[in-house]
Design a protein that fits this description.
By secondary structure, the chain is of the alpha/beta class. It is built from 38 helices and 27 strands. The chain has an eight-stranded mixed sheet, sandwiched between helices. The longest helix has about 40 residues, at about 610-645. The protein binds pyridoxal-5'-phosphate. The site of pyridoxal-5'-phosphate has 11 residues, from helix 18.
């Protein structure tokens, strides 16, 4: 049997316990007097005991049914209980109980059982009423519980849009455990009889309480405050849920309280019809998809098409003799929904007033933003929109140098003075981490010393990075605002849209941090702490300021933007992205410019299918994002564990842990691995709360240097060509496996199988290898794992492009456009003329972006001086793809004359 520390989550534990119970009972039923009957019986008892604690939080099969099964077993009805458990366990695995009633009694036939075998057709599934569970929090006896259940059940109507089943728990703590454990729960009814402390004693469950935080502080609370407090606590961990507070306190008292996710307060304990209708309406508010619904409706209406879109209604296809296969492949609906109309229930993305506007508002609610804008051209466009809306020519922007190329192009378009920040390097794996806070603070303090702080407009960082390094977002904003209280933050969350729906992940998203921070800035405690720190920091020098955790002034402005590729981590068609805004000065200062920037970059013919998919993707996360993200993390964790503990895999591969990807100085918790073969799982909550950087465990970097293949060869020649496994990121000696909300346990199992097969083949190959072959293998491994080129820092902008009086920030736009003039450019070869030029003391300055894949970000930008380190790195890169570098000509650089000319001009301008 597995020990408790083998489980990452209580959901996995539950599922395994049901499966063990089912197997053991089947065995007993088959052979009740067999050799192992005694130990099997003991196993059944142990499973019943363990499941008893867990089943209280779930409506199916329900604690009453569960108790009944147990009694059947205790009274010797083994065959009966084996039957019931088999049916229940199966329904749990297939999720059939969420589609229809499952009769658990042996005498009752389950007519639809076979339907689940051949998973229902999408059309049949679409017609089924969605199911959810409602948690009632009240300390009631068995009789009262039955009364509550019956009353709610009797309110059901055939035309209700959803069906639900109640779960009753007695205490505030149980309710918190319940909402974090049971993903079926969509609504909570908090009744006045609830108690505080849970009797449950299972670490996998009680650790959920940590996520809710602040539990210790409320232990001495007045019992009449438990209800409102519960609503507030749930708002922190599952903000998408609805709560209904039933209370006997006065309206005036309740009116003054912060009630978190509470949608309505009920004063009449027996008003079950109102409660029922509110529960349904609450779920419907999340289920609704204004634009998708409008598009579906539109596609059903008869219309004559007299606009420029022959594919609309499939007309140009159905009449064709040559492109019928396109119609057959996509089916009719997509063409029925293709239109350029903006009326008839549809809307204009550029000037939304109807269903798109509403869909965006719902998305803002779901992602914790004040405003959300859809984009049908990916986050690449979102980034340019935000930068153009906020950055004026000449504004200084602090940018992480290894950010996505859209930011660098955005800087060119906006005419920003770019101040590049260096991420910490991971030389061993040829990849970068993220920018340490100390480096950001240092740059800001430097700017302050140079009297330039008023020109610093924005800090732009990638959270999380492609490789999964995640910032402590709130802390970064806090300390930066202490230096520059109106700084604008753009967090590129292209890879992090899903994070909102995992309570641990959510804390490190831009929107959540902005909301928390806004609240905190207003408190008297914050004002006091700020005043106290100011006294201490009088005359503080740079070193002291860097070492101190700075507190921002209470009047600091919270100005946060995030851009997310919904299509990368959630349900959306490719290119579906969102911009989330949480900026206190948006209305007054930015809205108009934002509108213009949006117009600049958005097509006048945005794709309606993408917009509809964003709308539906939002519905999904509000109703099942929590469940899907939880499942994704579980799949990733089991993958990490399987690779880390497999003896054969360890010979050639290594899953990089937080300790490998984040230097110890940025891991204050001291946690270096989320799974340890001896200690089992680490509670990741602690590190996610404290550490400067954490690792998103759902992105798994595998070091493959031990196989003798570099990352790119391993990706294309082995994974893709031989096994049909697709990945898209590699470094010199690593490959990145990304899990997503669609990753299944069986896809993880397949990957492990493949890795084992690769390892076995390598074993065999080396077994039969000649001495020479073996030496060659060892040399390749050494080359990949020990001889690594150090990653170069950003060198510097040439003085022709530096902003006047600066040694740092540069005018990338001038450099970019200067390169349009052929006469000002030249080509130098990597292994010849560049080296010679540099030896002669000449500044070799790149005229274009040079972007090798991998790593996929510019190692040179226009106007940047080529350094020895960059040159060495470029030479060591054995990649075929270097964008911007011409194999036939070399590197495009500025001529010395062009640089001299421009330098004279800029110096003269500065002097004026
Ligand atoms: C960090 C980051 N930002 C932005 C983007 C661009 O996103 P999209 O592909 O949605 O345009 C990417 C794409 O890989 C990315 O990695």
């Amino acid at each position: 049997m597995q020990s408790m520390s083998d489980y990452y989550s209580a959901v996995q534990l539950r599922s395994d316990h049901w499966s063990t119970l089912r197997q053991s009972l089947d065995q007993l039923a088959r052979d009740p007097e067999g050799r192992y009957a005694k130990s099997t019986r003991a196993k059944v008892v142990a499973m019943f005991n363990a499941l008893e604690t867990i089943e209280r939080y779930w409506a199916f099969p329900g604690i009453q049914a569960f108790d009944h099964m147990r009694r059947q077993f205790e009274t010797g009805h083994v065959e009966d209980v084996a039957f019931t458990v088999r049916r229940a366990a199966r329904a749990l695995v297939t999720g059939a109980y969420r589609r229809r009633h499952i009769p658990l009694d042996r005498d009752m036939d389950d007519k639809d059982e076979n339907e689940d075998e051949a998973i229902l057709s999408p059309d049949a599934r679409a017609l089924a009423k969605p199911y959810f569970e409602v948690m009632i929090v009240d300390d009631v006896n068995e009789h009262q519980e039955r009364w509550l259940r019956q009353n709610l059940a009797s309110m059901r109507r055939p035309d209700d849009a959803f069906t639900y089943a109640p779960v009753v728990v007695p205490t505030l703590q149980d309710a918190l455990i319940g909402v974090l454990f049971n993903h079926n729960i969509q609504a909570i009814i908090v009744r006045p009889g609830l108690k505080m402390e849970s009797k449950v004693d299972l670490d996998l469950l009680t650790r959920y309480l940590k996520l809710a935080g602040g539990i210790d502080a409320i232990k001495d609370m007045n019992p009449e405050d438990y209800g409102p407090e519960l609503c507030r606590l749930i708002a922190k961990v599952r903000p998408e849920l609805d709560a209904y507070l039933v209370t006997d306190r006065s309206v005036e008292e309740i009116a003054g309280l912060d009630l978190g996710i509470c949608r309505r307060v009920f004063y009449n304990q027996e008003d079950f019809m109102e409660l029922h209708l509110n529960i349904l309406r609450g779920v419907q508010a999340r289920n609704k998809t204004p634009f998708f619904t409008a598009l579906k409706e539109y596609s059903k209406q008869p219309t004559g098409v007299f606009h420029a879109m022959p594919i609309s209604r499939g007309k140009s296809i159905t009449r064709s003799h040559w492109i019928q296969d396109m119609g057959a492949f996509y089916g009719p609906n997509i063409f029925m929904a293709e239109t350029s109309a903006t009326s008839g229930g549809l809307d204009s993305l550029l000037e939304p007033h109807g269903t798109i506007k509403e869909a965006q508002e719902l998305a803002a609610r779901a992602f914790g933003a004040k405003h959300t804008y859809f984009s049908t051209n990916g986050t690449s466009t979102c980034n340019k929109i935000v930068v153009q809306a906020l950055v004026r020519p000449g504004d200084i922007v602090l940018v992480d140098r290894d950010c996505h190329k859209s930011h660098h192009y955005g800087m060119v378009l906006a005419g920003a003075q770019v101040s590049y920040l260096d991420s910490y390097p991971l030389n061993e794996y040829s990849m970068y981490g993220a920018v340490p806070l100390r480096e950001i603070k240092h740059r800001l303090l430097q700017m302050k010393a140079e009297g330039k702080l008023d020109r610093v407009r924005m800090l732009l960082l990638t959270n999380c990075t492609f490789d999964g390094v995640v910032y402590n977002v709130e802390r970064v904003m806090e300390e930066c605002l202490a230096i520059k209280p109106d700084l604008v933050f753009l967090w590129d969350e292209a890879w992090f849209a899903f994070a909102r729906f995992g309570p641990t992940y959510r804390q490190r998203t831009g929107m959540n941090a902005a909301n928390n921070f806004r609240e905190r800035l207003r408190t008297p405690e914050h004002a006091k702490a700020y005043a106290k720190q100011q006294e201490k920091l009088v005359d503080a020098d740079m070193d002291k300021l860097l070492k101190t955790r700075l507190i921002p002034p209470p009047n600091a402005r919270v100005r946060v933007y995030t851009t997310q590729s919904t299509h990368k981590t959630l349900t959306s068609l490719r290119q579906g992205s969102m911009i989330h805004v949480n900026d206190q000065d948006f209305k007054g200062e930015v809205e108009q410019a934002f509108h213009e920037a949006y117009m600049t970059h958005t097509s006048t013919s945005p794709n309606y299918q993408i917009i509809a998919s964003l709308d539906v993707g939002r519905r999904q996360v509000e109703l099942e994002g929590f469940e899907f993200v939880q499942r994704q993390v579980e799949a990733a964790m089991s993958m990490r564990r399987a690779i880390a503990t497999h003896p054969l895999l360890q010979k050639y591969f290594k899953v990089l842990s937080a300790g490998d990807m984040i230097p110890a100085e940025y891991r204050e918790s001291g946690v270096s691995s989320y799974y340890d073969a001896e200690q089992g799982w680490t509670d990741i909550w602690d590190c996610w709360e404290q550490d400067e950087f954490v690792l998103d465990a759902t992105r798994i970097t595998l070091a493959v240097g031990g196989t003798g293949w570099d990352g790119d060869t391993f990706k294309t020649k082995i994974l893709m060509d031989k096994y049909g496994i697709q990945i898209n990121k590699t470094s010199r000696n690593t490959v990145l496996f990304m899990t997503n909300i669609g990753t299944t346990r069986s896809s993880v199992a397949y990957l492990i199988e493949v890795l084992v097969e690769i390892a076995k083949e390598l074993d065999e190959l080396l077994d039969d290898a000649s001495k020479m072959e073996r030496m060659s293998f060892e040399r390749r491994v050494k080359n990949l794992t020990q001889d690594y080129p150090p990653l170069p820092d950003f060198s510097r902008f040439h003085e022709a492009f530096l902003s006047p009086g600066s040694t740092n920030e540069g005018d990338i736009r001038t450099a970019f456009f200067l390169s349009y003039d052929e006469s000002k450019c030249d080509y130098l070869e990597l292994d010849g003329s560049i080296k010679r030029a540099m030896k002669e003391g000449r500044d070799v300055v790149s005229a274009s972006f040079i972007i090798p894949y991998p790593p996929g970000f510019p190692i040179l930008v226009p106007g940047q001086v080529v350094s020895e380190e960059i040159l060495a790195f470029m030479r060591a890169l054995d990649v075929n793809e270097i964008h911007g570098y011409r194999q036939d000509l070399g590197l495009r650089v500025f001529t010395p004359e062009a640089l001299a000319d421009l330098t004279t001009k800029t110096t003269a301008q500065a002097a004026k």
